[in-house]
Amino acid sequence: MTGSLDGKVIVVTGAGGGIGRASSIVLADAGAKVVVTDVLEEAGRTTTEAIQKRGGTASFIKADLGAETEIRSLIEQTVGLYGRLDGAFNNAGVEQCAKPLHELTTEQWNRAIHIDLTSVFWCLKYEVQAMFSGGGGAIVNTASSLGQVAIANASEYVAAKHGVMGLTRAAAADYGARGIRVNAVLPGIIMTPMISRLVGDVRFAAIFERLKQRHPIGRFGDPTEIGESVKWLLSDAASFVNGTTMAVDGGYLAT
Question: Which residues have a catalytic role annotated?
Fold first, then answer.
């Protein structure tokens, strides 16, 4: 299988479903050797098998991104398996608790910051070290439209995703001269299985209809559409793109 990522070794975190699974398939279809990682082994192996059935190359490595040692091991295992690391899509994260700030517990706050921000720092830390010996690479982080704006009842998530935006730019400044590009995608509302269930729930239908109106394109996104954006950012076609935060949101941030 050949394409814009032919032969590149790329790690995808949170690849057991949703955006991570769809993106893994897109990257593999473009010729990448994809290292699928997720804390949920069955889900991660399902993604891996889906890629292999399409004729792509994929391997599964289970990792809990809440632990720095597991992230370091993930990258070491990847290099041991394929000899190098060319790219990464740091996509894993947790969602907001849907509570106003004053009702959040410190545990809930810490969990969001730990998984949605600190784990991205750890991923970057070990990914760039692996890329030094290979002459460079490209990294994409999943931020969010809420990395640029805010909504009610999401303070821990908004804070973490704003942090991912800053971390992306800082890493781009640190490593651009060393041949490593770091960018971020900012998804709008994407029709992952969870969102699809909520949209179909009469209790939330009115809320999602209002949200759809905030997307000038007239619909919510498909996970594959995020994967296509990530594919471009990881490819040599984006060789002069560094430190950008790309909204893939149907125009949500434009309104």
Answer: 157
Q: Is residue 234 part of a domain?
A: yes
Backbone angles phi, psi at 115, to 5 degrees: -85, -45
Question: CA 121 to CA 130: how far, in whole Å?
Answer: 14
Strands (E), 92-145: 137-142
Q: What is the pTM of this model?
A: 0.94
Report pLDDT digits (tens) over 60-74: 999 999 999 999 999
Q: Domain range spanning residue 76? A: 9-190+222-248
Residue 183, beta-bridge partner list: 140
Tens of pLDDT along 117-169?
Answer: 999 999 999 999 999 999 999 999 999 998 899 888 889 999 999 999 999 99
- Which is nearest to 14 in space by CA: 210, 208, 230? 230
* CATH number of the structural domain spanning residue 110: 3.40.50.720
